Amino acid sequence: MPKAKYDFIYKDLKNKIEAGEYGFQELLPSENHLILTYGCSRNTIRRAVSALVTDGYVQTMQGKGVRVIFEPTQQTSFTLGGIESFKESALRNHQTYKTKVIYFAELTADEKIAKKTGFAVNSQLYYLQRLHYLDNRALILNHNYFLKDVVPFLTPEIGENSIYEYLENILHVSIVTSKRIMTIEKMTQIDEKYLELGDYNCLAVVSSQTYNSDGIMFEYTQSRHRPDYFRFQDNATRRPALH
Amino acid sequence: MPKAKYDFIYKDLKNKIEAGEYGFQELLPSENHLILTYGCSRNTIRRAVSALVTDGYVQTMQGKGVRVIFEPTQQTSFTLGGIESFKESALRNHQTYKTKVIYFAELTADEKIAKKTGFAVNSQLYYLQRLHYLDNRALILNHNYFLKDVVPFLTPEIGENSIYEYLENILHVSIVTSKRIMTIEKMTQIDEKYLELGDYNCLAVVSSQTYNSDGIMFEYTQSRHRPDYFRFQDNATRRPALH
DNA sequence: GCCGATTTGTCCGTATGTATC
DNA sequence: CGATACATACGGACAAATCGG
Lengths: 243, 243
Hints:
Two copies of one chain form a homodimer.
Chain A: H1 5-18, H2 31-38, H3 42-54, E1 58-61, E2 65-68, H4 86-92, E3 97-108, H5 111-117, E4 124-134, E5 137-147, H6 156-160, H7 163-170, E6 175-186, H8 189-194, E7 202-212, E8 217-225, E9 232-237
Antiparallel strand pairs in A: 1-2, 3-4, 4-5, 5-8, 6-7, 7-8
Helix pairs in contact in A: 1-3
The structure holds a DNA duplex.
């Protein structure tokens, strides 16, 4: 399915690692070997391996080889970094999901909103509050701001489904970059009203700015997560991760 | 200082973006132009630009150019993702820091510890509890586990300074990959004793496994952060980020 | 709408350096 | 020391997307 060769090889190696064909702490076949296996150039192999490195699947060692550092048992599902919609991650984990729009409005960004979201003052925006349910539990309360120029004709009905599907399939807006900041905040009255927080008095807040393929920021979202279901995974590589 | 050409170009472009020489929403010079500027091959330019993409500084657009999406005003300091020691980030932000070792022990991993940390059962470990102060406020309580095989002769004195400096400069252990998971947990009695949590009843917990250049996991750390000072930044790129 | 110029994306082959064994 | 393995760099070819005439 992937048309790019390096992407095919990347996915193929990834599958084999996940299946245990290349086990934890083992070495991958050498580059020269992989070149013969896949019938491609060295650059293409290196690109595929490089992607595995940034995913935290393997680690390259000059002069030695490429070591698998992926443990199938350690892996948990849910947010793995990368950009993924709520619907996508729910489906991937075989959970039932539902989204409810609890507020829908059109507004013009004033100073305060501009500063908070990063949109220019006087930008025309849609503002939604959406509640995300997983297996019938209200887990996430989203405050979404969308730039009308890029996302026209937004409705509560679209909000109930997946806005990302609307963007990609109908508007053909492709999402490229997302800058996120995670913090912890005290709960507000709105949080308390809609999320079952138990005896927690704070929650995880993920603020994100999303850019389309023209490099235009068209979305600002603040995601407020029920703390006991919040989990964020991340792989960091020191300095030159081959880039 | 950087000996690799692509790294020099990467840093040079990055500096110019941060200085505003290439402003927000502007396009970088085309690849062909940069080739002439830096006197190198196209691959080398593309590698440098690729690194800027993963850093969230620019976004490439096929047929159009490379757009700068870095806003100097929006940038805040502190954790930017990547691996950085407490001392490094404190220094970078011109803050005073101090580390206090409140517990130091050697132990052998039992079933429970093995499961929690990811070390093998019967691994010989050092276990430290360390308290990190920034500007005289206790912000982070760390539970560190180090594999003795890789980190021998660890002492409380070294723990008071930077363990990472000891690793890199004395033992010549280079840190390559770190897998992190962020969650929110209720505070414990130990947290309450050492961190000033105000009226928060929970805190940010970052659990990380760190690998050395041989692909051996030698550190498991659980970092417990005072919530009002916790902040984690991240850039996500959808699918092929050039990899 | 077509065409050519520009710009980024993919892929190949080769040469040389550095680290490991 | 030689063989092996990854790292860096160069050059060239063609594809795909964009833009202007």
